[in-house]
Every structure is written in structure tokens, then in C-alpha cells.
Design brief:
With about 70 residues, the protein is mostly helical. Helices cover about 80% and strands about 0% of the residues. The protein contains three helices and no strands. The protein is elongated.
């Protein structure tokens, strides 16, 4: 965790990737469920992933701004 707290780019890159992937996952699964007119695997956990991705992204933006 020292790299994350220090704002090291090497440590933050995977977190940015994870945050964006969680947001896309949270959006894609409900869209795919609507498109297939039924349940699509991951539909129930997609809202949780979207919320967690949003919170992580907000924190990463704050960390990045504090570096400037």
C-alpha cells in the first residue's frame, strides 16, 4: 500500500483499470439482459460493481489531484 498512498503511477495504473472495468461491467450486464430479454449472468452483481467502481474512481481522482 505504500505505493498507492505515495501516488506511484505503477501502483495506480491497475487501480484505474479496475475502476473503469467495474464501471463498464456495471453498465454492460443490465444492457445485455435487456437485449436478451431475460437474465444475463452477472446481472445481480452489476449494480454493486458499478457502485464500487464509482467510489474507487472518485478516490483515484482525489489522489491524482493531490499530486498536482
Amino acid at each position: 500500500m505504500p505505493g498507492i498512498r505515495a501516488g506511484a503511477v505503477v501502483a495506480l495504473f491497475p487501480l484505474w483499470f479496475l475502476a473503469l472495468a467495474m464501471l463498464l461491467n456495471g453498465l454492460a450486464h443490465p444492457i445485455l439482459a435487456v437485449r436478451t430479454s431475460g437474465y444475463f449472468p452477472g446481472l445481480l452483481t452489476a449494480p454493486l460493481a458499478f457502485i464500487m467502481g464509482f467510489v474507487l474512481l472518485r478516490e483515484l481522482i482525489q489522489i491524482t489531484k493531490s499530486e498536482e
